[in-house]
Specification:
Elements lengths: L1 E13 L19 E10 L2 E7 L5 H5 L4 E7 L4 E4 L1 E3 L11 H8 L4 H6 L4 H9 L3 H17 L2 E7 L6 H16 L4 E9 L11 H19 L5 E6 L6 H13 L3 E6 L7 H7 L4 E4 L5 H10 L2 E4 L1 H7 L6 H6 L4 E3 L13 H10 L5 H7 L2 H6 L17 E4 L6 H4 L6 E6 L2 E2 L2
Parallel strand pairs: 1-4, 1-5, 6-7, 7-8, 8-9, 9-10, 10-11, 11-12, 12-13
Antiparallel strand pairs: 1-2, 2-3, 5-14, 14-15, 15-16
Helix pairs in contact: 5-6, 7-8, 9-10, 13-14
The protein binds N-(iminomethyl)-L-glutamic acid and fe (iii) ion.
Fe (iii) ion binds next to loops.
Length: 422
């Protein structure tokens, strides 16, 4: 028996459809494919029809033999794709709330890290937890994120920095996908920092060797991650080291993402372009040449304005990126230190206020462009026939309220594969 679910007569149906299937920069990023008084038909979890309500024959659907029909009345509401959080570090142990208070009192993020706190504190806490404990902490966060509208999660490892714990983190990500039914894309970020036990003479070289000769190959062999990422920045890995790691990852079949130019102009963005990474992330310190390189290589720029807010850093210039034709995605960066904000809906609003995106551009950034950066644009991110029916009902008739009333409980319902999940 086939299951038909209709979302009927939304004041605004944001389809994001009609433009290119690749990530969109320039004017195309602001085109929402908006249908007023629009409806969408879902069959067995996938959209089968999307269009103006006037063109929908509900009676014919009701009369279909062997089908069950459920109709959601959406008058006065916005219907839009579920949010896609294309940069998170969701699986970690413990917390760094003390560090947050210290930073609020004036302590510096990079100094805390250099003194063995920061990422290294989360590494200690993550190593001390078994898979079930890490899973219990991660699923709580993921379900809160879903209540805030997120239906697809990219999840990075990077709080293990040894083979065993990196594998454990990625197995938790897999469990969130396979046992908990979340849409998850996993990324190996074993190149997040030099682990504390390698900070002596020869330690750097030996960790780089271990990354390339054992950690990345083991993760590739278990198919635990589709992407590999490197923190190419001041205090983490140099451009040269990052190139070595990313090239090795590419050889092993990983697609690439790069933490680039967050703390300084460290060459990460150019490296992402050189290696044709799917995404270059953060990008606080880039120039016109970097933007040209990203555009030329088809790299998605993933901006993380929550991190700028929490660390009191400048906001990446999203306006300049879009105007230069670089497709922009926006994500939470949800992690235990630099930004533990879980609501991508809130971060979407920050992208307007901080990165100077328009509300329409920001919506494309957390839906279609995020999907494209994850290689999922044919499955999620738009309301279009054939795509999975991941969608949000907003308790407003104007999508701009997501920015205007940032932080208000506007997300009335979250659907994944046509089923209500929050
Ligand atoms: O994306 N920049 C590097 N990694 C994370 C922060 C990790 C942490 O502080 O735990 C980020 O901001
Ligand atoms: Fe990050």
């Amino acid at each position: 028996m086939s299951q038909i679910v209709v979302f009927a007569e939304a004041a605004q149906l944001l389809t994001l459809d009609g433009g290119p299937i690749t990530a969109r920069g320039g004017a195309a990023q602001g085109e929402l494919g908006l249908i007023e008084r629009g409806s969408a038909v879902v069959r067995d979890g996938f959209f089968s029809w999307v269009g103006p309500h006037a063109a929908l024959d509900l009676r014919a659907l009701a009369a279909e033999p062997g089908a069950s029909l459920e109709v959601h009345e959406c008058r006065g509401k916005v219907v839009m794709p579920g949010l896609i959080d294309s940069h998170t570090h969701l699986v970690w142990g413990g917390d760094r709330k003390d560090e947050l208070e210290a930073r609020l009192g004036g302590a510096d993020y990079e100094q805390i890290f250099a003194a063995g706190g920061g990422i290294l504190s989360s590494v200690r806490q993550t190593r001390a937890r078994d898979e079930d404990q890490l899973h219990a902490e991660a699923i709580r966060r993921a379900l809160r994120m879903r209540r805030c509208g997120t239906t697809t999660f990219e999840i990075k490892s990077g709080y293990g920095l040894d083979l065993e714990t990196e594998l454990r983190q990625l197995r938790v990500a897999r469990r969130l996908r396979d046992a908990d039914g979340l849409r998850v894309v996993a990324t190996c970020l074993a190149a997040h920092a030099l682990p504390a036990e390698r900070r002596g003479p020869g330690g750097r070289e030996s960790y780089l060797h271990e990354l390339c000769a054992s950690i990345l190959p083991a993760i590739a062999a278990e198919r635990l991650a589709e992407f590999a990422d490197v923190f190419c920045d001041r205090g983490a890995f140099s451009e040269h080291e990052s190139r070595t790691i990313l090239r090795r990852a590419q050889e092993l079949g990983f697609r690439l993402r790069v933490h680039a130019n967050e703390l300084g102009p460290t060459g990460g963005a150019r490296l992402a372009a050189e290696l044709r990474a799917a995404s270059a992330d953060h990008l606080l310190h880039i120039d016109d040449d970097d933007r040209r390189a990203l555009r030329g290589a088809g790299v998605v720029a993933t901006l993380l304005p929550g991190t700028s807010l929490v660390l009191k850093k400048p906001y990446a210039d999203g306006r300049a990126l879009i105007d230069a034709g670089v497709p922009v995605a926006v994500a939470t960066d949800c992690n235990p230190g630099s930004c533990a904000i879980e609501s991508l809906a809130l971060v979407l609003a920050l992208a307007c206020h901080g990165n100077r995106l328009s509300p329409a551009e920001a919506i494309c950034a957390v839906t279609h462009n995020a999907a494209a950066s994850l290689g999922l644009a044919h499955r999620v991110g738009r309301l279009a026939p054939g795509l999975a029916a991941d969608l949000l009902l907003l308790a407003t008739d104007d999508y701009r309220d997501l920015v205007y009333h940032a932080g208000s409980p506007l997300i009335a319902a979250v659907f994944q594969g046509g089923e209500r999940v929050a």
